[in-house]
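Fold these two proteins, one after the other.
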Amino acid sequence: MVAVPRSLIPAESGNRHNSLFGRIARNSVVVLVSKIIDITAALAIMMLLTRLLTTSRFGDFAFINAVVLAFQPLINLELNTLLIREMASNRSREAILLGGGLLLKIILIGGFITAAVILDGIMQFQPVIRICFYLAIAAEVFQQITWVYSAVFMARERMEFEPMLSLISRGIAVGGIILLMLVCPRHLFWSTGLILIFCVLAAAQFARGIAGILVVRRFLDGFHIDWSPAVARDLFRHSWIMGIATFCTCLTLRIDVYFLKYFHGSETVAIFHLPHMYTLQIQILAVSIVTALFPVLSRWAGDAIDHQRFKRMQDFSIRVITLFGLGIALFTVFFPRWIVQVLGGSTYLPSTAALVILAWCIPILFLNYLCTNLLITLKKQELLIYGAVISLLINASLDMLWIPDHGIVGASFATVIAYTSQLVVVLILLRIVTRSTLDLGRVIGLPWAICLISAGMARWTEQWVEANAVTGIVIRLTLLIAVGLLLLAIQPKAIRIALIQSRRRVSLDWASGVGQSYGVGDSSSESVSKDDRFGSGTPDAKTPFSS
C-alpha cells in the first residue's frame, strides 16, 4: 500500500459534509433513491403487464423493447459518461461541452430515426407492432435528450435532482398503466391496449425531458449552452468507439430474445424476458454507487499523487461491488419461485430455472459496470471494444447451438458465459492499465467460491422447502446471513469498518482513519486546482475537446 502524505489527509474535518467519503456516501444515497424509484417502477410495470397482457403479447412487448434498446448505443455513444468526465475535470468548458454534446445528439437522433424506418421496411412489422415500435423510438429520443442535461447534474455532483426526475417519469408511467387498467376493457389489450401502453411510456419520457430542461435552467447557477460544431466533432471522435462497444454489449443482452423469437415464438420470449429483465434492472443498484464515484475518480485519474488514491479507491470499489452483487445473487437463488410469483404470477413459474441461472449475472454485471467506468476515467475507453466483441461472438455462437434444443435454459447459460468472458477481458485490461497488485483470486474468486457452495447447500435444502415452507425459509435466511457474515469476515479490517459503520460516523472517520488506509481525504484536498488536471484551467486551454 503506497503511503499517502499527511497533508493530503487532514486529521480533522471541520464539517462532516465536507469529507470526501461523506460526499460520496451522500451522493450514492441520493442516486440510490433515484434508482430505487426506477427499479420499483420498472418491476411494478412488469407485474402489471404480465397480468394485463397475454403471454404472447407480453412477448411482443419484450421483443419491441429488445429491438429498440439494442440500437440505443448508436445514438448514445456513452456520450454522457464522456461529458461527465470532462465537465467534472474542467468546469470552465461546461457550456461548450454541453452545446457540442446536444448538437451531436441531435445529429445521431436523425440517423437513429432513419435506421428505424429502414429496419421497419426490412422486418415488415404487423400494424399494431409497427405503431408500438415507433412509439418506443419516440420514448428513446426523449430520453436521450434528457440524459445530456443529466450529465450536468452528475458533473456538478448535484445528484438530488435525479430522484425528482425519476419520480415524475416513473409516476406517469405506472399511474398511466393503472388508469388504463381501470378505463380500457380487458379484451382491447390484445390490440389497442398495447398501443396505449407504449403511448403512456413515451409520454413519461417526454415529461422527464421537459422537467430536466426546466430544472437545469432554474436551479443550476451559471448554466448556459455554447453551441459548437467543432466540439461536437471532437466528442464524436472520442466517443464512437465506446458507442460500438456498448452496441455490442447491448446486442449481447438482447440477442437471446431474437433467437428465442425465431425458434420458439413470442410466448417463450415472454417467459425468458421476466428473469432476464429482473437481472438487468437490479444492475441499477450498482449504477448508483458508480455514478457517485465517477466525478471524483475522473479528477483523481489525471494527477500523479491523486492517481495513487484512484488505485486505492478502485480496489475498495471492486471489493464492495463484488460483495453487493453476490449478496443479491444469493438471495435470488435462495428464493426464485417467490420472486417469479411476485413479478409474473403462476403463469411464469416455468421461468424459475432461468432465474436461478441468470442470478449469477448480477455480480458479473455489477463488477463489469464498475471496471468499464474505471477504464473510461483513465481515458482508455477504446479498450472496451475487445470485451464487448468477444462476449457478443460467444453469446451468438452458444445461442445458435443451445437455444433450438434447450430454449430458455440454453439461453440463460449462454448469457452467463458471455457476460463472464467480457468481465474477464475488462479485468485483465484494467489490471494492465493501472498496474494493480490486487489479488483478484482472493478478492473476487474466494467470495464467489463461498457463494457457489452456499447455493449448492440451498439446493440440498429443497426437500425442507417443499415439506414445510416456513422451515425452509428460516433455514435459507439463516444460511444467507451466515454467508454474509463470512464474506464480511474475510475482508480487510478497513473494508469491514467502512461497511459496518453508520453514515454519520463514516463521514467524519474516513478522512482521518479509514481514509488514510485507502488514500481518501477531505474534499478540500481533492478539489480541482487552478492549473487544471486536463489543461491549463483557462477557457481556451488545449484540452482534448478544444474548439
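Now the second one:
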Amino acid sequence: MKRVMLLVIVSLALAGSMPGAETSVDRWGPEPLGARVEPAPFTPAPIKRQLHPTLKVHPARGNEVVLVQDGRPMCVLMVADQASAAARKAAIALQEALGKMSGGTVAIAKESELRLTKAGGRWSVEHRGRPVPSLVAIGETKLSAGEGLSGRELPLEGYRMKTVGNALLLVGSDVRPEGNLPLEGTRHAVSALLERHLDCRWLWPGDLGEIIPRRATVKIAALDEEDAPAIRQRKLRNYGYGGAETIEVPPDPGQPGSTSTRKLVLRHDRLTIGMTTLGLASDDYVGWCPQSTAWWSQQRLGSSYAVDAGHAYRGWWNRFGAEHPDWFALQRNGSRMPGRMPVEREKLCHANAGLIEQVIREKMAELKNNPGRDSVSVSPNDGGGNNGPCLCEGCRQLDPANGRPLGVDTYADGKRQTIPYVVLSDRMFTFYNRVAEGVAAVYPDRLLGTYAYASYRDLPLAVRPHPNLLIGFVGFGYWDDTELNADRQRWEQWAGVARNLFLRPNAFHQGHGMPGVFVTKLDRDIKHCYQTGMIATDFDSVLHHWGTQGLNYYVLAKLLWDPSQEAETIVQDYCDKGFGPAARLVRQYFRELEEVTNRCAAAEPANGKTAANELREEEQEGGSRHTKTYQRLARMYTAPVIARLRQILTEARVKVAADNSVQRRIDFLLAGLRYGELQAAVHAGMLANLADKSGLLRLLDERHAACRDIVRQHPFAVNMAYIAWREGTMWKKTGWKPVAGARQAASRRRAPRPAGRGRQS
C-alpha cells in the first residue's frame, strides 16, 4: 500500500511530462537542449520589514544589587534543581567572569539548597546556614515564576533581566516547544549583562581578546530590560579550532597502576597537514581549540531553527551505483561512475524519474523520523571529486539554450576539461521542485533545504522555486566588487520570488588571511538582506584570522543579533574597550586598512579576469588560478602601504607604553600585518616570474620562519595551519620546500632587504 501511495505521489510530482524522461539519456553532449526563455526584467526585491532595535528597556524598580563588595562575594548564583543546560552554563560563565573581575568566588547553588523568604519587597537569603545579602536567580526558577517571569513567554532565544528588591532575575527562552529544541536564552542574558552593564568584551578568542575590567566591588543598578535576536539563525561556522575531539586513552599495560585518560586530538586532516607543513605538532594546535568556542556564546550566536541544507548525497554511489548507475551523472567518457575513489562527491542525473522517486522516499522517511526538524536537505554534493555535472540529453533538455554562459568542468580518465556551457539553475530547481511536490503531498508544512550555489546560483529562467524550499544563497564576497555587485543583484532576484531564503556565504574563505576590513559593506548587506526577507545565516567560515580579519567577524556577530545597529558604533566600541588611550589610532588603522581592502576589491586584475573565478577560495587550485586573486594583493599591498599601516600601529603602541595588555593586543595586529607584508612580497615575486629564483627563495624562507613565529606567539592572529594546507603545491615550480626551506635558510647568503620591508617591531 505504501509503495502504491508513493508511486501516486511521484507521478503527481512528475505530471506534465518530465523533459528527457523518455529519451535516450546516455548520449553525452556539450550543448544545452532546452528552449530559449526570455529573462524576466530585473526588479528590486520588495522591503518586507524595517530595521528596529531589538532591545526593550522598561522602567526599573528594585534596588541596586551588590554582587561583590571589596573582593568579598555578596550574592549567590541560584539555578533550579532541574535547570536547563543554558542556565547551568550561564551560571558558570557569570561565576568565572565575576572571579576574574573581583578575585572573589561567588557560589552557585540549587534553589532547594537556599532558604528564601520575602518581606517588604526584599528577599532574605540563607546559604549553608549563612545569610547572603543579594541573590541572582538564573533561568527558570520558582522565585522568577512567582515574580511573573517565564522563559516560555519570551521570544525564541530571548531573555529578560530584572531587579526585584535585592534580587537580580535572569530568565531566558531555553527550549523551543516544537521539537523540544534546546536554546540558549539564559546564556544570552548573562552575556548581555556582562557586556551592557559590566563593560566586558570578547574581541577574539583567548585571554588576550578578553576584556574584563578589574573592580573589587561589582554592583548592578536597578534594571528591567528584555531582548531577542532579530534573526532566528545566526550561524558562523567555527573552522578548524572547532575540529578537536576528546578521546579515551586506555591504561598503559606496561605501567602498573596506570588508568585511562582523556586526550584532546585534532580530527581535521587539512589542519594536520598544515601543521606538518609548518614543522609543528598538531598537539599544539589542539591546545587552542577549547579557547575558541567560548567566543560564539559570548557573542550570542545560535539558532532556534533545526534546519539542514547541506550536501545530501554522500555515499549514494556505494548504496545505489551497482543497481542504478543511471541515477548518476553521465561523464564525458560515457561512464556514469564517479572519477575518484573512494567516492565522496558523486554527482546525480537530475532528470532521472527513478532517482526522484528515491529522493522523495528518503526525505519523507527523514521527516517522519525527525519530527522536530524544520527542514531536511536535498542539496547536491559539493564540487570536485573528478566528476562533473550530468550532460545526458535528459538533463540538457532542462537547461535553457540562452542561459548565462558558464564554464563547466568535465572529466574523462581523471583529466579535467572546462567546456563552455550555461548555468545549471533551471535543471537544479526543476529537480528540487519535483521532489518538493512529492514530499508536500504528505508533509505540506515541512521544508526541504537546498542552496543556490556556484553553477546554479542564478535565478532560473523557466521555473520558480516551490514554496516549501528553504534556499541558501551562496554569494557575497568582499575581495572583488564585480562579483559582489553581481551577487547583490542575484539576491534581489531571489528575494523577490523565494518564500524561505537564507544567506550562506563563503565570504571568509577569500582573501587568503590577508589583512582586510570590509565592515561597511557587511553592514550594508546584512541590513538589506534582513529587510528583504532573510530568515537565517550560515557563514562559511570563521577561519580564525583574528589579527587580520577579526574585526569583520566581530561586527558581523553583533549585526546578526540586531541589524539596526550601526557598524561604525560597533567598531568604535571595539577600539575603545580593547585599546584604551590608543583607540583613536587603532580606529585610524582599521579605517585606512578598509580603504586598502576596497581598492583591492575594485581593482582589475592585470589579465582582465575577475579574481573570484570560484566562490570558495579553497576550491581553487594552484598554478594559474591563484594568480587571479593574488595579483590584486601584490599590486595593492605594496611596501609603502604596509609601512604606513605599521607606522600607525607603532604610534599606537607608544601611546600605551604603560599598559602591557593593550601593547600585546597591538602586537597581535602587527603580527597579522607582518604576515600580510610577506604574503604580498612572495606573490609579487611569483608574478614577476624572474629566471633567478634566489631572491624569491629567500623571501619564502623568511616567510616560513615568520609563520612559525606567529603560531608560537599569536596562534589566533592568523590560522597558519589552514594557510599552509591551503597553499598546497603553490610554490612547487620555485623549487622551494618547507622543510628544506627551514634547513637551508641559514646557508643562503642574504640579499639586502627591499625598502619598507622591515621586521615587525
